[in-house]
Write a structure and sequence with these properties.
10 helices; alpha/beta; single chain
């Protein structure tokens, strides 16, 4: 009996030829802290021109995360924005999202790549050049690197990498690097010069007096003003 061809693409080959155009430069992450409803921020960010939203819900149930992801997918669809789900590839697939972002203690990237069969973007959180190279070999589509600068958005984070730390990681991979943590529009040029493809933000948009204007400021700094 002849062998059945594998349906899973070569993850190493895919990583060696990353499609940077598939990874927008600005990732706006939902902020649900203190019971906050993030959908108003998502609408504002999309109106400003943001084309990637990461759905993060750290303190909710699986069904609540799925419901939020589906709502964000519905908002993003008309403008062609990319939706990523934090931590959960199963929820990303069920919601019709475009990808998943995996942290250090989530499902390993290689296993996620086998499940995705090339149909989902897979982001991976890394801090070191060695981890970046390993994530690329495992099949990641892009890398989240941080914290770039000190931030109070998430507790228990390691020391900030700074632009030099971002540069060291970016030099070790062909994948798009998305810097996260304490990012402001004023810091974007230094991060781009360090080799970052783009940035991810939470409080800089959600806690801004005008989330739409804040998003637009990031897009201008990234050279993607609509």
């Amino acid at each position: 009996m002849s062998a059945v061809p594998s349906a899973v693409p070569s993850v190493v080959a895919a990583a060696e030829r990353p499609d940077r155009t598939a990874v927008p430069r600005l990732h706006v992450i939902t902020d649900t802290r203190q019971g906050r409803d993030p959908l108003a921020d998502v609408r504002a960010a999309l109106r400003a021109g943001a084309r990637a939203v990461q759905v993060r819900l750290k303190d909710g149930t699986d069904r609540q995360l799925l419901d939020l992801a589906r709502r964000v997918v519905a908002l993003a669809g008309p403008v062609g924005a990319t939706v990523l789900v934090d931590d959960r590839i199963d929820v990303a697939a069920a919601a019709g999202a475009h990808g998943v972002h995996l942290g250090e203690h989530d499902l390993p990237i290689a296993d996620a790549a086998r499940l995705a069969c090339g149909r989902l973007l897979i982001g991976g959180t890394v801090r070191t050049p060695a981890a970046a190279a390993a994530a690329q070999a495992a099949g990641a589509s892009y890398l989240g690197v941080g914290p770039a600068f000190p931030t109070e958005t998430k507790d228990g984070l390691p020391d900030a990498l700074g632009a030099a730390g971002i540069a060291a990681v970016a030099a070790a991979t062909a994948l798009p690097v998305i810097a996260i943590g304490g990012v402001t529009p004023e810091r974007v040029p230094d991060l781009l010069a360090a080799g970052a493809h783009g940035v991810a933000v939470i409080a800089a948009v959600s806690r801004a007096a005008d989330p739409q204007a804040a998003t637009a400021a990031f897009l201008r700094a990234l050279g993607e003003a609509p």
